[in-house]
Amino acid sequence: MEAEEYFSKDFEWEELKREVLSDPSLQHHLMPFEPSSSSSSVVLPEEESNAWRKFHSRHHTGKFFKERRYLLKEFPELASCGKDSLILEVGCGNGSTALPILRNNENIDLYACDCSPEALEYAKEMIDAANVASARHRFHPFLCDLSLTGFPEWLFCVACQKTSLSQSLPSDVNIVAGTLTGDRHSKENSCCLGGLDFVTLIFTLSAIPFQMMSSALVKCFSVLKPGGLVLFRDYGLFDMTMLRFEPGKRVGFLEYMRSDGTRSYFFSLETVRDLFIQAGFIEVELDYCCIKSVNRKKGKSMQRVWVHGKFQKPPHI
Questions:
Q1: Structural domains in the chain (count)
Q2: Do 195 and 229 contact (CB within 8 A), yes or no?
Q3: What is the pLDDT of residues 112-157, one digit of tens each?
Q4: 23-58 b/e with 16+ CB inside 10 Å = b?
Q5: 175: alpha, beta or left, given left = phi > 0 and alpha = psi -120 to 50?
Q6: In a domain, 5, yes or no
Q7: Is residue 35 part of a domain?
Q8: In what order do the strands lie in the sheet with 255-257?
């Protein structure tokens, strides 16, 4: 199946910004955030995870999550990487990102984690049902909540994680290892898998409370091999979904809680850049993706904004 054509500029983000700033009804989105007794500003990671588990139980069909074939145009590295390339997808959901990657490149082994065991089961079912040659043998899902713990030791051992961090991060940064062990894909005669070529963060970082994002990115940094890339796509500032939130749904600055308890943050380029650079990465690409989506049923045009980014672990650390 061919990758869908990738477009990123139906309109200019700066023009949208001017429209939002001139609309008095939207100014509450940009006001300083002041927690109230009715807000959900207190972060309870276990409750956040439970909300996402329930979300995936309700919305796990292909009708809700469509296969993201556009990612192969957005990130051509996924289609062209060589033999034995290793990818970690953080927050894999029902497999809508994993499937097109596995389908289009037989050289890839894809490790995929999610905080929801239900999502992992749906992902495995989707991969199996696609009947793609060798895909089920190259897809390795595991349970991991990046806001609560680090990655399991078998993915990239603790000693190597600490070595990879020691030359680029402050000494007080602590990486907590996961508790999963004994995975059937681990190498018995070596300490680790040698690091990953890519980590994908596709609409995942925005679901983590803002104060936990830096720690999550440091953990991603730790499992990449030198020169490895994080491929990033997430909600952008002034996206249509952000502008639809009512004032009472704010739980932080540019951070909102949906009625089902799931969270979403809307990124500016500056915020993304700061988060990744502080975690030790080098910026390779960073831009807004601005797309007009038409709801034919309602006859409405919707302005969607996402952030596209590529960030590299320094080749020599």
A1: 1
A2: no
A3: 999 888 889 989 998 988 888 789 899 999 999 888 888 988 887 6
A4: eeeeeebeeeeeeeeebbeebeeeebbebbeebbee
A5: beta
A6: no
A7: no
A8: 250-252, 255-257, 263-265
What is the rounded distance in angstroms from the CA atom of residue 232 to the CA atom of residue 251?
23
Which position has the token pair 């749904």? 249
∠ CA 247-250-254, nearest 5°, is 110
Tokens for 62? 């292909």
Q: Which of 251, 304, 303, 243 is nearest to 29 (CA)?
A: 243
Within a domain: 67: yes
- Residue 281 sits in a domain whose CATH number is 3.40.50.150
Residue 165 has pLDDT above 90, yes or no: no
Let me know: does 105 contact 42? Beta carbons within 8 Å: no
Which sign, positive or negative, has the C-alpha torsion 309, 139, 69, 94?
negative
Ramachandran category for residue 141: left, alpha or beta (phi over 0 → left; psi -120 to 50 → alpha) = beta
Strands of 196-202's sheet, edge to edge? Answer: 139-143, 108-114, 85-90, 196-202, 224-235, 300-312, 282-295
Range of the domain at 270: 13-25+41-312
How many other C-beta atoms can be found within 10 angstroms of the C-beta atom of residue 307? 25
Please, are residues 204 and 233 in contact by the beta-carbon 8 Å criterion? no
Please check whether residue 121 lies inside any domain of the structure: yes
Cα 261 from chain centre: 18
191 pLDDT band (50/70/90 cuts)?
A: very low
Per-residue confidence (pLDDT) for residue 83, from 0 to 100:
86
**270 contact partners, CB below 8 Å, separation of at least 6:** none
